[in-house]
Q: What sequence folds into this?
């Protein structure tokens, strides 16, 4: 049986995921795939049966950079609980000894993202796009 090819949106998402994983969040042209908002917010991070508090340092609708997570493996599935939100599944896109980039399985809703940035964003400081 022939498998149907992925829809264009799925292919673009998969390609973007590969680019993010390969370049630490940079598109191949050196530009970021999405604008990041600099934030400082505490969140609950769960890996297997271990839960800990981490610091989010930047956020997009599609993912976040967290500090204080320990050693993680690329493509590992984790759970992140943002303030006032239900836990969200995410995959590790990249990691080093200090921090990790997470890609959310389901993007944050626009109004929720805007509320989190308004509440936890660093006073108009924007990260380079």
A:
């Amino acid at each position: 049986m022939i498998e149907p090819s992925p829809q264009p949106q799925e292919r673009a998402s998969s390609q973007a995921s590969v680019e993010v994983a390969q370049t630490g969040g940079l598109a191949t042209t050196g530009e970021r795939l999405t604008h990041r908002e600099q934030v400082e917010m505490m969140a609950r991070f769960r890996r297997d049966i271990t839960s800990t508090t981490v610091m989010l340092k930047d956020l997009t609708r599609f993912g976040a950079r967290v500090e204080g997570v320990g050693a993680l493996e690329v493509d590992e599935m984790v759970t992140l609980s943002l303030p006032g939100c239900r836990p969200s599944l995410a995959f590790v896109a990249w990691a080093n000894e200090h921090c990790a980039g997470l890609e959310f399985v389901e993007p944050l809703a626009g109004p929720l993202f805007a509320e989190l940035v308004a509440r936890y964003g660093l006073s108009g400081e924007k990260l380079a796009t």
In short: The longest strand covers residues 37-47. Residues 3-30 have pLDDT under 50 and may be disordered. The domain at 34-122 is CATH 2.40.10.220 (Thrombin, subunit H). DSSP finds two helices and seven strands in the chain.
